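tokens incoming
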């Protein structure tokens, strides 16, 4: 798949294309109040989900309570005067794509403490405006989102209009113009500064790239669309970073990764407690670097490029919706989805079917165990603690007719059935192999992919609790709502590394980061796939001699820059590999070492006035010299 480089600006979706960099937004109609859910003054127990904003137009609030209603989101609005208003709420019935009964994401809108007659989240498979009817509003009103179930209700926006005939637009281009006008946002993005290197994506790869570049003397912007760093290795997703670092003959490649991620110890792994993933450690290291400007909660969804060179990226704040323009000499796409490269017209590939799925890890806890109770991350911890003090340790769970029906179906953790390498019944619940989306688009369909994982989790827990009668004192303790992706777009470099390169240990003169993970490609596990064709949710990893190689294997630098966008690096699972080679390179410690190399190479580009390709062609000995330097060493 080849990108087109003859353009000046490209945007992530139709809703952004409608806006452009200098969108002329019409003024909002009089007698109207528009409230973005993510801008509520107090979001309560609702979570902010930005994963699908490029497809549905905005981030939204998610009532991710694992079956326990979450605390109200509350805000205040000031109106021109007390009057009758018609209320509209943009939401959806999230299980409707499966024609499942029950509409589990029910919630109410409260005006001055009184619920509207309509219950929301009950209609429509797609995002739409649900009519809330007329309501008498005071000039100074309190608005609340009141979750009724704890089962993933979602709200994009609330609108009050004095015109009873007005129907808000739902078409994305028109809705985007309406949003920006109603919020009073400026037409053009604000200046976000100019940098030597702009790193987009704050996973282990991107964070390592930013630290490496800054320590090698560059002025760096690190742009991340979540409030924490670490990506899949953060407390939000909780995949434990794997891969061997600091290998010969370049034992300092991996030093920065070791600063960011502790060595694996007892109690570490997937789906553990939040503290295991050390969000503060990562943030602290970045904030300690004076040359790094950290821009969190900024989703890059626009790129300015011409002649095969990127001039700037445009980021949208996931809370305020304000946009900033960040210009740079060089850019590093560490988004995982190859967002920057794709928008810049970079050559790329993407599997259309049979790709690896995404995980939403989860775990359970024993309410009767004091040690587990102390570590509980439940949003209703105070009420739960009170119940336990009163010796009420039974943890019932409702039937879930809208979930994947596993009443008579096998799944890991049930009746002596196990997922790959899981050793105990509870270890089978919410492990890495709870994975879905094998034949879905990991970018445009990510909400559905994540929601299928939810339906599988809730269906399994319903079956264990209510059909099998197991775990009477256990409850769901934590589940990710940010999907842990394994595969999407890959950007093409001057070398496209293949699975055979690993098996044959092809030697490259520019080997720069060591790979140690096996050729690990996930596919649906046939033991659990019957009756779930096209929507499998349990995976199996490849094994056997064809999927191993002699390591560590040093992969080439030429996989880390775009072959047709002259100032674009990449680090992470979006580098230049084929599907098989993605298996060994995608684990996070390995991705972090890619970032370290990108930071060093970018410093050579700036100092020697060259390009990423020029580093290989003219300055490879200098790159290798930097690879021998300790990661903590700083250059002016």
């Amino acid at each position: 798949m080849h990108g087109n480089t003859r353009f000046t600006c490209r945007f992530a979706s139709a809703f952004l294309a409608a806006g452009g960099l200098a969108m002329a937004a019409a003024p909002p109609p009089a007698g109207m109040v528009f409230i973005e859910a993510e801008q509520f003054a107090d979001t309560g127990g609702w979570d902010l989900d930005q994963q699908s904003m490029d497809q549905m137009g905005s981030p939204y609030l998610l009532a991710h309570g694992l079956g326990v209603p979450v605390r109200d989101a509350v805000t205040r609005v000031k109106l021109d005067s007390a009057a009758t208003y018609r209320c509209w709420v943009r939401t959806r019935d999230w299980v409707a794509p499966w024609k499942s009964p029950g509409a589990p994401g029910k919630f109410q809108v409260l005006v001055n403490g009184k619920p509207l007659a309509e219950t929301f989240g009950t209609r429509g498979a797609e995002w739409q405006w649900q009519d809330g009817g007329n309501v008498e509003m005071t000039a100074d009103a309190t608005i609340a989102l009141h979750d009724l179930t704890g089962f993933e209700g979602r709200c994009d926006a609330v609108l009050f209009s004095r015109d009873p005939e007005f129907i808000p637009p739902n078409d994305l281009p028109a809705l985007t113009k309406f949003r920006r006008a109603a919020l009073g946002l400026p037409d053009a993005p604000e200046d976000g500064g100019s940098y030597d290197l702009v790193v987009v994506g704050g996973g282990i790869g991107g964070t390592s790239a930013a630290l490496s570049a800054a320590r090698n003397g560059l002025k760096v912007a690190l742009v991340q669309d979540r409030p924490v760093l670490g990506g899949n290795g953060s407390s939000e997703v909780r995949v434990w970073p794997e891969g061997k670092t600091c290998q010969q003959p370049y034992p300092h490649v991996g030093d920065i990764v070791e600063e960011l991620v502790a060595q694996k110890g007892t109690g570490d792994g997937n789906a553990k407690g939040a503290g295991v993933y050390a969000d503060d450690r990562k943030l602290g290291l970045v904030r300690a670097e004076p040359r790094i400007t950290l821009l969190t909660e900024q989703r890059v969804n626009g790129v300015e490029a011409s002649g095969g060179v990127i001039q700037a990226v445009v980021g949208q704040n996931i809370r305020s919706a304000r946009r900033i323009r960040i210009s740079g000499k060089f850019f590093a796409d560490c988004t995982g989805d190859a967002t920057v490269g794709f928008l810049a017209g970079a050559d790329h590939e993407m599997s259309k079917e049979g790709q690896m799925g995404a995980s939403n890890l989860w775990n359970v806890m024993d309410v009767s165990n004091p040690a587990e109770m102390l570590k509980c991350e439940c949003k209703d911890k105070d009420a739960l603690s009170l119940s336990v003090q009163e010796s009420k340790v039974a943890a019932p769970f409702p039937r879930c007719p809208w979930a994947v029906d596993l009443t008579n179906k096998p799944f890991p953790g049930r009746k002596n059935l196990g997922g790959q390498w899981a050793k105990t019944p509870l270890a089978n619940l919410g492990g890495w192999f709870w994975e879905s989306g094998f034949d879905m688009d990991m970018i445009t369909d990510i909400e559905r992919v994540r929601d299928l994982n939810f339906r599988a989790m809730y269906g399994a827990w319903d079956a264990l609790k209510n059909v099998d009668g197991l775990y009477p004192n256990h409850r769901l303790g934590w589940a990710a709502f940010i999907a842990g992706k394994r595969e999407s777009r890959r950007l093409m470099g001057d070398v496209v590394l293949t699975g055979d390169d690993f098996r044959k240990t092809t030697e490259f003169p520019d080997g720069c980061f060591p790979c140690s993970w096996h050729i690990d490609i996930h596919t649906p596990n046939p033991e659990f796939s019957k009756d779930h064709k096209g929507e499998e949710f349990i995976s199996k990893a490849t094994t056997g001699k064809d999927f191993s190689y002699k390591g560590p294997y040093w992969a080439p630098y030429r996989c880390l820059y775009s072959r047709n966008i002259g100032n674009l690096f990449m680090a992470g699972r979006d580098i230049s590999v084929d599907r098989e080679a993605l298996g060994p390179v995608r684990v996070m410690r390995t991705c972090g070492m890619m970032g370290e190399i990108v930071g060093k190479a970018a410093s050579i580009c700036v100092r020697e006035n060259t390009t990423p390709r020029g580093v290989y062609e003219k300055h490879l000995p200098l790159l290798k010299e930097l690879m021998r330097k300790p990661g903590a060493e700083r250059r002016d």
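note: The chain has 15 helices and 28 strands.
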